[in-house]
Design goal:
With 290 residues, the chain is of the alpha/beta class. The protein has nine helices and eleven strands. α1 runs parallel beside α8 and α6 packs across α8.
Length: 290
């Protein structure tokens, strides 16, 4: 039977450590999490509430700017400048709801590189995460690495397949592993999958339920399922249809309760890393000490 990688349990463990550490910091020196939202997508509203609630629970201050739908590029740039000045680190919640912006990447590149805690501007997307201490792996990818480390999975000596190459998860986590010298196979919608059975670890982040279905996998494969889908019966499922996998699975992230809870804590970890860079402290390192 597969061992479940419990993201909820690890999230609570890390939150408890962070809460204790932050209590030693004077109120006027606490990190400040910034969020910029453009529009009123309900899914974005839910994500933002979760992020703000976790930050508040931990004692982290917040600065939340919400612009109306179809805000101008000038208004968005002005808000980015405010958050660059006032916060320790911030995110621009995607997608933005406006027809007045031709290039979202241009906006992301206006975020100070050491405050880009979503890891989405060009500096972070093209960074060497291992050698550049001022770079940020996106939050979900950070959460996945934390889960693997927590369960002592020696990914440095395994072959890893990454299905989906988005700039939020697939591409940066592939880069991270390759920079460690790990053999990585990248898959997207146009990639043949006849060698998928050669991977010890499979990270699936496509947003397409059933993308891994009736494909031969390695015996005792480790599956990290990033997808989340609400089925007609109300249940939540990932990208992978586990019932279709014939081989034994050694470790598995459940959906829900696996990668999902780690995404927000990954963002908080990046915020504290940014705080360390700017304040010359070692909070981030202390979180992972026994």
């Amino acid at each position: 039977m597969a061992i479940l990688l419990d993201g909820r349990k690890l999230k609570e463990k890390l939150q408890s450590k962070i809460e204790v550490i932050l209590k030693d910091i004077p109120d006027n020196q606490l990190p400040i999490l910034g969020i910029l939202q453009v529009g009123n997508f309900e899914e974005s509203n839910i994500y933002i509430r979760h992020k703000l609630n976790v930050a508040t629970k931990l004692g982290i201050k917040t600065c939340y700017i919400k612009l109306q739908e179809d805000a101008t590029e000038s208004e968005i740039l002005s808000s980015i400048k405010v958050l660059n000045d006032k916060t320790t680190g911030f995110i621009m919640q995607l997608p933005i709801q406006t027809k007045n912006v031709a290039n979202v990447d241009y906006l992301l590149d206006q975020i100070n590189k050491i405050k880009d805690i979503d890891g989405l501007n060009h500096h972070n997307q093209e960074a060497n995460y291992i050698l550049e201490n001022d770079s940020f792996l996106p939050a979900t990818a950070t959460g996945i690495i934390c889960l693997l480390d927590e369960y002592n999975i020696d990914y440095k000596n395994k072959t890893i397949g990454v299905v989906g190459q988005s700039k939020i998860i697939g591409k940066p986590i592939s880069n991270f592993f390759e920079q460690l010298g790990i053999k990585v196979r990248r898959y997207d919608i146009n990639t043949k999958k006849d060698d998928m059975h050669l991977n010890d670890i499979l990270i699936v982040a496509t947003g397409n339920r059933g993308c891994i279905s009736n494909i031969k996998l390695k015996e005792d494969v480790i599956i990290i399922d990033v997808g989340i889908h609400r089925l007609e019966n109300g249940k939540i499922s990932g990208d992978v249809i586990i019932a279709d996998i014939k081989e034994n699975i050694s470790y598995l992230t459940p959906v829900p309760g696996g990668v999902g809870p780690m995404t927000i804590i990954g963002l908080i970890l990046n915020l504290l890393k940014s705080y360390d860079i700017q304040s010359k402290t070692n909070i981030y390192k202390r979180i992972f000490e026994s």
